[in-house]
Amino acid sequence: MTNIEESSQKKGRPTPKRKEAQASNKISSLAPASSKAEKQRAKDAARNARIAQRAAYLRGDENALPARDRGPEKKFVRNYVDSRRSIGEYFLPVIGFVLVLSLIPVGAFAVAGIVIMYSVLLYSIIDGLFLSRKIKTEVSKRFPDKSTKGLGLYGWLRSTQMRRMRAPKPQVKTGDKV
């Protein structure tokens, strides 16, 4: 049949109403018809899998870690940072303290708060630079064939997080030898 013959023939059925056409489009022929109980079981299984994955990530299981946290050198950096105290991890509480100081209607308290905040920030940056250098030298000693690219910043950023908020959770205690 040619196109001319096709267009002149009738289709043999009435054109569906818009509502009917849209309703037929909403039903997916690929999705199996399932009951509410099956959907709920699938939802619960997916949620339990996510919870288990998150718990494994927080424990530091190598298979559950994202690519940015994998590898023996990253694990060493995490342990190295977690074994020491850093001024950067106290920056957020210091900001809260400065906020309280700024609420006092005396100008000296506001100035003192700003001085405290910027001095802690400056000290944190200097500490981060020295920490980054220490991390790179230690990694190059322990893993001579591995690149140290990005490890200093990785350790510095981890050191600025409050210890409780770090993910994966710290594996060593403060003061332990790494």
TrEMBL record:
<feature type="compositionally biased region" description="Basic and acidic residues">
    <location>
        <begin position="36"/>
        <end position="47"/>
    </location>
</feature>
<dbReference type="InterPro" id="IPR021403">
    <property type="entry name" value="DUF3043"/>
</dbReference>
<feature type="transmembrane region" description="Helical">
    <location>
        <begin position="110"/>
        <end position="132"/>
    </location>
</feature>
<feature type="region of interest" description="Disordered">
    <location>
        <begin position="1"/>
        <end position="48"/>
    </location>
</feature>
<feature type="compositionally biased region" description="Polar residues">
    <location>
        <begin position="22"/>
        <end position="32"/>
    </location>
</feature>
<dbReference type="Pfam" id="PF11241">
    <property type="entry name" value="DUF3043"/>
</dbReference>
<keyword id="KW-0472">Membrane</keyword>
<keyword id="KW-0812">Transmembrane</keyword>
<feature type="transmembrane region" description="Helical">
    <location>
        <begin position="87"/>
        <end position="104"/>
    </location>
</feature>
<protein>
    <submittedName>
        <fullName>Unannotated protein</fullName>
    </submittedName>
</protein>
<keyword id="KW-1133">Transmembrane helix</keyword>
